[in-house]
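Hi team,

Below is the intake form for peptidylprolyl isomerase from Sterolibacterium denitrificans. Please confirm the fields before the structure is written into the shared record.

FORM ID: S-0412
PROTEIN: peptidylprolyl isomerase
ORGANISM: Sterolibacterium denitrificans
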Amino acid sequence: MKVSLLRTSVFALTAAFSMAPMLAGNAYAQNIATVNGKAIPKVRADVMVEAQVAQGQPDTPELRKMVREELIRREILAQQAANQGYEKQMSVLAQMMLARQSVLINAYVADYVAKHPVSDEALKKEYEAIKLGLGNKEYKVRHILVGTEDEAKDIINKLKNGEKFEELAKASKDPGSRERGGELGWATPANYVQPFSAAMVKLENGKFTEEPVKSDFGYHVIMLDDTRELKLPSFEETKPQLAHRMQQQVIEQHIKELMSKAKIQ
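The structure came back. Fields below:
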């Protein structure tokens, strides 16, 4: 409290001096330490403790002691940097501004999400849409990817003449599967590009495509090893991931709306 802000009457000055010890005590209680005369506010420690607790650390006296020591260490280094003029460097100022923006954005987004929660009804609707898109089967397939239709037809003829798919797959342009005999593992049709999945679901177990399948990657020869019923996790199991994804969509939509209203030159 500055005396210059008080009325200069005797009563005002007396009141100010009588309250000074109490105010000083309150101010001290709000600080965890002072470094070279500069106070470190308790709220700063609370924020650090909350961050550690959010990561699973228990709020203990030991943790608070470590946080206090870390804040003192930071304050000493920050003062040293300021004394040497680093906070006047343009690159440092820019980084400080970006850090400030990040804190403000995180606080705003967290509050926006809290005020615009995704309903259980919306989550269930999304879950059902995903189930519908994935279908009810998984397919275990192999493929051989080549660059031209003639190459694919040549491979199909060799398969018809009894050559092994695994051996022919060594010539595949897909490095991720050629060393495994062209095997892609278990997946739903939604995992593949449309021409590939459309041909795959028409195959019977043990059969291969008798015509080359063209996609943006080249020409495929596909062989179906096996099929099985798709077992999806329950709604309750996927709810946290769904909620996070849909919250991100809500945020992105809000950002688009703000940008559409902003005057950008």
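SUMMARY LINE: Strands lie at 31-35, 38-41, 137-146, 183-187, 213-215, 218-229.

Thanks, M.
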